[in-house]
Amino acid sequence: MRDDALLFQIAKMHFEEGFSQGEVAQKLGLSRAKVNRLLQTAKDRGIVRVLVVPKLGHAYLRGIEDDLKAAYNLQDVLLIPGREGIIKGQLNLGTQEAIVERLAHAAAEYLDRQLTDEDTLCINWGRVMRAVVDHLHPSKTLSGLKVLPLLGNLSAQPDSFEANLLAQEVALAYGAEFSWLIAPAIVRNLQQQEVVRALPLVQTTLAQISQATIAITAIGHADAKHSTVVKRGWLDSAEIEALIEAGAVGEICSWWFDVTGREIRDDKIYPIGLGLAGLKKMVQEGKKVIAVVGADRQRLEPVRVALLSRLVNILISDHITAQYLLSQASSAKFTNSR
User: Fold this and answer.
1) Domains of the chain
2) Are the C-beta atoms of 285 and 306 separated by less than 8 Å?
3) Interacting residues of 65 by C-beta distance below 8 A, sequence separation 6+
């Protein structure tokens, strides 16, 4: 077994599955001293991140959840403890990543509780969704479940963040069905989009995606410098800057939206997938659109807009983000009724 794989296995057994160091050692045929050393190595390499959780009562968090559900007309809210530094952007990277990992763990458990044999699940791409899938431990077999990506492929190279791959992993974990969206995530003009969407293989998967009963996604902020799609060369920073100048404050799957939730279009960016209109339709029909986002000051406004404009109707976040959203809710006006 490769070193990283062994470190991950030991860390998972000890910190997630609850085995003592002695039990881990016995199961893997190692000495307890070696397990102890490997756990420290896992911490040093960032495989394990330690988060000191503030003592917040269950009733306190549930109260904020209920207030947020009422304020933004949501189906559900799930909160974990956050940190005061979120609002001022004062979290160090390690603490921020630890909170996001805990969010992903909570989201994975929540998703497992929601899924049934009758559902069609759509999943976004990216780091947060990768973490959710990594934390997923199915409690049941769901042979009737269908799992699909929210959009096509962003790269011709293997990438663990890709929505197609994540959908496949979730389906295999549940013994479910899955379909790939065999199409680029983004094409560069309307004619290309029409040609791609007309391909039989693409048409079939898009039709299935349009019938989704649950979607799970992160929400991004408009950032030309640090955007993952820019860092990986999928879009140019100048293109993101142009979207920002046109009013973009956030995005889901490279569908950009302004402060009213209106889609901001670019004549050289045509994503292939469910789209903002598809998410809004799901919300209007009472289906579940789950946003997993928190511990990031730059995402506060995009999340607020997504909630108000009915792009999502279930939020999994931290209590500091939730308190900020509540502070902004008094003057909020909904663009759509539930």
Assistant:
1) 3-44 (1.10.10), 58-327 (3.40.50.1360)
2) no
3) 77, 78, 79, 322
